[in-house]
Specification:
By secondary structure, the protein is mostly helical. The chain has 3 domains: 89 residues, Fumarase/aspartase (N-terminal domain) (Fumarase C, Chain B, domain 1, Orthogonal Bundle); 220 residues, Fumarase/aspartase (Central domain) (Fumarase C, Chain A, domain 2, Up-down Bundle), CATH 1.20.200.10; 61 residues, Fumarase/aspartase (C-terminal domain) (Ribonucleotide Reductase Protein R1, domain 1), CATH 1.10.40. It is 63% helix and 5% strand. Helix 7 runs antiparallel to helix 9. It is elongated, with a radius of gyration of 30 Å.
Length: 454
């Protein structure tokens, strides 16, 4: 593309070079030519073309130029016909066998499978890196106590390692989801105009078997003129789910980076935060992750709309897939790279976590006191009502929950002050945090082990 002509930011801003390279027009052309060559070998194996013709077609591939294919498409108005004619021109006498009996989407859908196989491999590798980094953080901070929050309010104490372990679990589930999607999506199609293989007579299964064997693909069990579009919808949905999980992680960083919280922060280095406010340190990487997740979620609608095609197919999926397939993978690639950058530069502030634990002056431990009272014989409902009243009283008096509960006669009738002081210690009310972290890490380890050995 000529200098200054870029319109889509995926061309110059988002996505790694390795992911971008998969979706260039040149690579799309080469993958489609690769499928045409595989078809030729399938035809030869079935005895439908003369021996040696497939090799001549293969040798002609390097002579096919994108510029010539574009010229042919401008005349014909059909991209795959232009490709087939371009290859036939380059193949000489073997050219008459190019694309014999095939339909356009034998080539298009099988080429997508080849490209998406590589694209998914990139996503899996980077997602594994994110999960492993979160696992390391979960182990490192398993004992670092901080406020757990629900509805944006202090709820109960947790540890930072516990928080990270939840992300380990969620993202590992996405990795499993991608693996499942891959098994259904990465398949080839070589079945002719409406999927019946009629052009190849009783040799259709031979053509399919040899062509897809050369490409390292299993065939779809049955298709119309196109492969089922639920596979593409599943891929986009899986990426949107993963994107939403990364969004949740990014939001957590953004929220905990607020000056009034300050428990976690995005490392900003020398980056300028504001063009006018010199003091600003903005979580722009986290915000980019959240912004791109919105786009991914929007793409799922298009992918779902492509499932219902007329009869054995229509062309309503084609134009939108040219947009949503590469955009989905490039956006996810950018989000994973950004998440890795975010996590590697993460700043942890234990002092602020301890400070924030004290903001409620013991109020975060109200459930712990309630459970202690129940163990001493008070009914759960009575204990709940009592502690709710103590909290309201503390708010009115300004003394704080800890002081009020340590001097409440009803509470002291069941618990001594020494017992209460132990109950009010956050480190004594972490439940099964250690075992739950270990369970999450074991789960992730098992999935990652399967990915490494596959």
């Amino acid at each position: 593309m000529r200098e200054g002509a870029e319109i889509c930011p995926l061309e110059w801003r988002y996505g790694s070079p390795e992911m971008r390279a998969l979706f260039t027009r040149e690579n799309l052309l080469r993958k489609r030519l690769e499928v045409e060559v595989a078809l030729a070998y399938g035809l030869e194996a079935a005895g439908l073309i003369s021996p040696g013709m497939a090799e001549k077609i293969e040798m002609a591939v390097e002579r096919v130029k994108l510029k010539r294919v574009d010229e042919l498409e401008a005349k014909m108005g059909h991209d795959i016909m232009a490709l087939a004619v371009g290859l036939a021109e380059a193949a000489g006498e073997a050219g008459k066998y190019v694309h014999l009996g095939a339909t356009s989407y034998d080539i298009v859908d099988t080429a997508w499978a080849l490209i998406l196989r590589s694209a998914i491999d990139i996503v899996k590798r980077k997602l594994v890196d994110v999960i492993e980094l979160l696992m390391d953080y979960s182990r490192r901070y398993r004992g670092l106590i901080m406020p757990g929050r629900t509805h944006g309010q202090h709820a109960l104490p947790i540890t930072l390692g516990f928080k990270f372990a939840n992300y380990v679990y969620e993202l590992t589930r996405s990795l499993e989801r991608i693996l499942d999607t891959e098994r259904r999506l990465i398949k080839g199609k070589m079945a002719g105009a409406v999927g019946t293989m009629a052009a190849w007579g009783d040799k259709g299964l031979v053509v399919e078997r040899e062509a897809l064997r050369r490409l390292g693909l299993e065939p779809h069990v049955i298709t119309t003129q196109v492969v089922p579009r639920d596979g593409f919808a599943e891929l986009v949905s899986a990426m949107a789910i993963l994107g939403s999980q990364l969004d949740r992680l990014a939001i957590e960083v953004r929220e905990l980076m607020r000056p009034e919280i300050g428990e976690i922060a995005e490392g900003t280095g020398k980056r300028v935060g504001s063009s006018t406010m010199p003091q600003k340190r903005n979580p722009v990487t986290a915000e980019k992750i959240s912004g791109l997740a919105k786009v991914l979620r929007g793409l799922t609608i298009v992918a779902l709309e492509n499932i219902p095609l007329w009869h054995e197919r229509d062309l309503t999926n084609s134009s939108s897939e040219r947009i949503i397939v590469p955009h989905t993978m490039l956006i996810m690639d950018e989000m994973l790279d950004s998440t890795l950058k975010l996590l590697k530069g993460l700043i942890i502030r234990p002092d602020n976590m301890r400070r924030n634990l004290e903001l409620t002056r013991g109020g975060i431990m109200a459930e712990a006191v309630m459970m202690a009272l129940v163990r001493k014989g008070m009914s759960r409902h009575e204990a709940h009502a009592l502690l709710r009243e103590i909290e309201r009283r503390a708010e009115r008096s300004g003394k704080g929950f800890r002081d009020e509960v340590l001097n409440d006669e009803k509470v002291l009738s069941r618990l001594t002050k020494d017992e209460l002081k132990e109950v009010l210690r956050p480190e004594n009310y972490l439940g099964q945090v250690e075992k739950l972290i270990e369970r999450a890490l074991r789960y992730a380890d098992e999935v990652l082990r399967n990915v490494r050995t596959s």
